[in-house]
Amino acid sequence: MEFFKKQYQILSLVAFILLGCSSDEEQSTTLEIKVTNFETSYSQVKLNWELVRPNGIIIEDLLIYRQSKNNATDNVTLELVANLPSNETSFIDNDVPYKTEVSYTIKINYTDERLTPTNPTNPTGLLSLESEQKKFIRNIVTFDIVPFQVQKDPILVDEFHILDRQGNGALKRYNGTLNQLTKTILFTNGNLLNNKFHIVNNTDLYVADTQGKIYKINTENYTTTAIYNTIINDNLNAFAVDGDRIYYQDEEIWWYYNTTNGTSENTHIATTANYVETLSDHNFLFLYGSGAAIRSYNPTNCNASNCMPDFGAGTQGAILGNNAMDPNIFSWNTSKSKFITSIDGRIFNLSNFQQEIKLSDITGKKYFQFVFDNNNNIYATVQNEKKIHKFNSSYELIEVIDTKLYPLFPMLTSNGLKVIGGYEPVTYWSFGYGYSFYFNIKCAIETF
User: Fold this and answer.
1) 448: closest CA among 397, 405, 395?
2) What is the C-alpha to C-alpha distance for residues 323 and 393, in angstroms, rounded to an integer?
3) What is the pTM of this model?
4) Which SUPFAM superfamilies match (predicted)?
5) Rounded CA gap, 198 and 184, in Å?
6) Which has the closest alpha carbon to 226: 237, 217, 236, 238?
7) β-bridge partners, 208
C-alpha cells in the first residue's frame, strides 16, 4: 500500500509540473499590452506600458491615438499623434489639447509567424491589438461664442462678470478660485446687448440693450433690482449712470432718464460718443473714434429746458487718427490715471489725454484686450497667436507667456493669470468696422 501511495504522489507532482508548464506556455502565446502609468498635467501627458511579446510575433506598428472633446455633442476625431519603434514603452505628449476630456489609446499592428493566413480579406495576416483607453479629465469653463465683455469685480475677490451674447444673452459670474461659473442672469435677445455694462458704487451693475431697456443688477447675489425702459427713437449706443439719472445717447442725441419718476428727457444736445463712463459725481468720460473729453452734467446745467455741459480744463487732448479709441478695447490702470485702448495698445494719461505710447510700435503686433496689475504691468493678448505679452510700467516687454488657446481676455486672480481664449484665431480690426463685436468661435477659460 505504501508503494502505491508514493507512486500516486509522484504522478501528482509530475501532473502539476506539466500543467504549470502548459499554463505558462499558453500565456506566452498571446501578445499583451498593459498601461502601467498615466500622468497628467497642464503641459503634458505621460504614458508607460508593458508588452508581453511571444516568439513569432512581429510588431509592424506601435501607434498612439488621441481623442479630445468638451462635451458629448462635439465632433470627436481619432488623431494619430505618434508612430513609435516596436520596443518603445513610453510616450510623452507635450501638445495636449485644452479640452475637458482627452483620451489616449495604444494600438499595435502585428503579424504572427506561427499562423497561416486563412482570411481572404486579410491576406497579409495583419492583426491588431488595442490597450485600454486612458482619459485625462479637466475642469474647464467653456463658452460657445466669444464673450462681449469681461470685467473684474471691484470688491469681490477673484470674481469676474462676463457678458455673453449667445442666444438670449446672459450675464455670468466667474469665480477664479473655484474655477467655475457661480451665477447667471438671462436676458431676452443677445443681439441687442451691444453696450458695455457699467458697475456703479461697486455693487450695482447696469446692462443696457440697444432698444433702451436697462437692467440694474446686484453684483453679490445677482438679483435684478430694477428694470428701466427709456424712450428710444433709434438705438441706445452709449450710456452712463449718475445718481438717480441715467444719461444715454440715442443715435446722436443726448438724453437722460430719471429713475425716480421714470421719465426720459431729450436734451437736444448732439453727441457722437462711442463710449461714456462716469468718472465721479457729474463727471463723465466721453470716448470718440479719434479723441476723448471729460464733460460735467448735473441737474442745474442739464435739464429739460437747457443742457450745456462744463468741460474739464485741458481734457480735450490731441485729435488722433481714426480708431485710435475703441470702446470694445478699454481698460484702466488701478489708480484710474491712465487707460489703454485700441488694437495698437495706445496708452493715454487722463490728465491731458496725451498718448504716452503705442505698444504695437514696440512689438509690431496687434492686440485683442489688455489688463493692468497693481504694479502697472500690462498683460496684452496677441491677436492670432498663442501668446500674451507682459509689459512693465516703463512699457518694456519683459515676458512672453505661451498659451494653449488663442488668448482673448486676460484675467488676473490671486492664484495667478487666467485667460479666456479661443479654439480658433479671432481677428478684430477696430470699432469703426462695426458695432457688433461678435465672433462665433468656441472659447474656454485657460488656467495655467
Assistant:
1) 405
2) 24
3) 0.87
4) Quinoprotein alcohol dehydrogenase-like
5) 17
6) 217
7) 214
Strand partners, 47: 38, 91
CA distance 186 to 224: 10
329 has pLDDT over 60: yes
Strand pairing report for 263-270 and 275-280: unpaired
Protein fold of 26-137: Immunoglobulin-like (2.60.40)
Closest CA to 446 of 100, 89, 12, 121: 100
| The residue type at 51 | L
Q: Identify whether the C-beta of residue 292 lies closer than 8 Å to the C-beta of residue 285.
A: yes
Helical spans, DSSP H, in 178-337:
none
- Tell me if 370 sits within 8 A of 342, measured CB to CB: no
Terminal Cα-to-Cα distance of the chain (whole angstroms):
79
- CATH 2.60.40.10 in the chain is located at 26-137
Query: Which residues are 385's β-sheet partners?
Result: none
Q: What is the pLDDT of residues 240-252, one digit of tens each?
A: 999 999 999 998 9
Query: What does the block give as the cell for 275?
Result: 463710449
* Weakest mean pLDDT among 72-86, 162-176, 224-238: 72-86
Pull the grid cell for residue 198.
457699467
Strand order from edge to edge, sheet including 416-422: 142-143, 443-447, 416-422, 406-413
Could you tell me which of 62, 65, 59 has the C-alpha nearest to residue 45?
65
Amino acid found at 428: Y
Q: Give ∠ CA 109-110-116 in degrees, rounded to 5.
A: 135
- Rounded to whole angstroms, how far apart are CA atoms 205 and 96? 38
Cell (9 digits) for 125 = 495576416
SS3 at position 13: helix
Residue in 183, 255, 188, 257 with CA at minimum distance from that of residue 223: 183
The b-or-e profile of 381-402 (16+ CB within 10 A means b, else e) is bbbebbbbbbbeeebeeeeebe
Those residues with Cβ within 8 angstroms of residue 1's Cβ, 6 or more apart along the chain or in another chain: none
Residue type, 390: K
- In the chain, residues under CATH classification 2.130.10.10 are 331-448
